[in-house]
Design a protein that fits this description.
single chain, mainly alpha, 147 residues, 78% helix, 7 helices
């Protein structure tokens, strides 16, 4: 295998690490909106699980704070807490559905997002900003090397 092929594979693997990050950030943003707007899906789910509707507001605010923390440069300890909070949110959702006797169609996705949150936290380079993380992946400010 040539150096160029190895480099491209390495870069591809590094970029693949962003898949769980994108999934978690998108789900957190959409979930925060749904919780705060109290759409019918959220109302039905909370009624089914036996949670009061004010809990949706608490979750929506927590998800919004986690999203803002993850996207803001710096504060690595705070980011760790944000990721931990999301693991509790998604893990708690999966556990709640299992406890309510729901099948995998209800608890599998929250469990996936809990696992994706672990992966996102573990795989991202340590640093202060998204730009620094992209630079570490070699996508920003990358100059091609002569062959």
């Amino acid at each position: 295998m040539s150096t160029r092929t190895t480099s491209m594979m390495s870069r591809g693997l590094k970029l693949a690490r962003w898949v769980p990050v994108a999934a978690v950030l998108a789900e957190t943003a959409v979930g925060a909106y749904w919780d705060l707007a109290r759409i019918s899906y959220v109302r039905d789910s909370f009624d089914h699980l036996g949670y009061p509707m004010y809990f949706a507001t608490i979750l929506g605010v927590a998800k919004t704070a986690a999203l803002a923390t993850i996207l803001t440069p710096g504060h690595p300890r705070t980011k760790e807490w944000a990721y931990a909070g999301l693991v509790f949110v998604y893990g708690g959702a999966a556990t709640s559905h299992v406890a309510a006797g729901d099948g995998p169609d209800k608890w599998a996705m929250p469990l996936f997002f809990a696992a994706a949150t672990f992966a996102a936290r573990a795989w991202l380079p340590q640093g202060g900003s998204t730009t620094a993380s992209l630079r570490a992946l070699g996508t920003v400010g990358h100059r091609p090397q002569p062959a």
